[in-house]
Design brief:
Layout (H helix, E strand, L loop, with lengths): L3 E10 L2 E11 L4 E5 L6 H9 L6 E6 L2 E2 L10 E5 L10 H10 L6 H14 L15 H14 L4 E5 L7 H18 L2 E6 L2 H7 L2 E6 L2 E6 L1 H6 L4 H6 L4 E5 L2 E5 L5 E3 L7 E12 L3 E8 L4 E7 H7 L6 E6 L5 E4 L5
Parallel strand pairs: 3-8, 3-9, 6-7, 7-8
Antiparallel strand pairs: 1-2, 1-4, 4-5, 9-10, 11-12, 12-18, 13-17, 14-15, 14-17, 15-16
Helix pairs in contact: 2-3, 2-4, 3-4
The structure holds adenosine-5'-triphosphate.
């Protein structure tokens, strides 16, 4: 039995359908990421799981119990928002103790112990006497996380928790959140529009678009075997071509550039139109002789060995096995 079951959920706001028959099963201890473009229904789904929003139709089961009508306050979850939502007039320690004090069953001794335990877990114990304004964004978000887990919730909801942070801090916090999640074994659902975040953190990704789930799978499955043209285009980069009813996709890193056609591969002669250095990789843009555009990702070390420039004539080669194809009906 799944720990959390979302069954045929529909949510309509006025005339706007935010969720259209969404079903999903989450196992205990899983880290699930809900990924999709702005307005696809991610936050609405998270809010329904939290009980902060009532569905128009469908049910939510937690541990096999129908919780669809259960008030948010009666559901045992912790939540972390993009905006941290800390009390500004309370220290780090007071922010955490405040939530614990609402739980009358937890003794004072245990509250102090738990506060210390979670602050050590997020590496903030030495900052416990500081106020939110004295902390960096990353430290504020770690405080919010410590506060959420201090209540020992059954599940953890993360709503774009890293979006407000700069790239370095974001990457460090990703690892920290994953480590804590695995250590506690806590079922976690994170909403994000950042594919890299979903790919690096989640056990399984739920890709949403236009109020429906497009695909559910491990990061590897979603990347290697996207089930629709939308997923193919949304996750990673994809060269996409239309031919009649069919759509073909080829990942930029699957293409080999050469001065002559490579035998046994699909060969598309063309011209280099731009070269973009991206650090470890370099993206090369080209125009094939059939006027279609193409982009190729190469390891930067290889590029310096190959030595080509804008305007050079080249051949773009790839194998048939690396082509993904879809029927046009699936395009959005
Ligand atoms: P974002 O990444 O921009 O936060 P999202 O994927 O989380 O987007 P939702 O916030 O779930 O999307 O919204 C889904 C749709 O439902 C949108 O079209 C939105 O305008 C609409 N919607 C959400 N909340 C409400 C509301 N309270 N009243 C009316 N419409 C709403």
């Amino acid at each position: 039995m799944a720990f959390l079951e979302v069954k045929n959920i529909v949510k309509v706001f006025d005339k706007q359908t935010a969720l259209n028959d969404v079903s999903l099963e989450i196992e205990k201890g899983e880290f699930i990421s809900i990924l999709g473009p702005s307005g696809c229904g991610k936050t609405t789904l998270l809010r329904i799981i939290a009980g902060l929003e009532k569905p128009s139709d469908g049910s939510i089961f937690i541990n096999g119990k129908d919780c669809t009508e259960l008030d948010s306050s009666k559901r045992n979850f912790g939540i972390v928002f993009q905006s941290y939502a800390l009390f500004p007039n309370m220290t780090v320690e007071q922010n955490i103790l405040f939530g614990l004090e609402q739980r009358k069953e937890v003794s004072k001794k245990e509250r102090v112990e738990r506060c210390r335990e979670v602050l050590e877990m997020v590496d903030l114990y030495e900052h416990r006497k500081k106020y939110p304004f004295q902390l960096s964004g990353g430290q504020q978000q770690r405080t919010a996380l410590a506060r959420a887990i201090s209540l020992k919730p059954e599940y953890l909801l993360l709503d774009e928790p890293l979006s407000a942070l700069d790239a370095k801090v974001r990457s460090k916090l990703r690892t920290e959140i994953c480590n804590i999640q695995k250590k506690l074994g806590i079922t976690t659902i994170m909403v994000t529009h950042d594919q890299e975040e979903a790919l690096t953190m989640a056990d399984r990704i739920v890709v949403m678009n236009n109020s429906v789930i497009e695909q559910i799978g491990t990061p590897g499955e979603i990347y290697r075997n996207p089930k629709s043209a939308f997923v193919a285009d949304f996750i990673g980069s994809m060269n996409i071509y239309r031919e009649g009813k069919h759509i073909y996709g080829i990942r930029p890193e699957k293409i080999i550039m050469s001065s002559m056609s490579i035998d046994g591969m699909e060969n598309r002669p063309g011209t280099v139109t731009n070269i973009e250095f991206r650090g470890a990789t370099t993206r090369v843009y080209g125009e094939c002789d059939d006027r279609k555009e193409i982009c190729v990702d190469l390891m930067s070390d290889e590029v310096s060995e190959i030595d080509f420039n804008k305007g050079d004539r080249v051949v773009f080669n790839y194998t048939k096995d690396d082509i993904v194809s879809y029927l046009d009906e699936e395009v959005v």
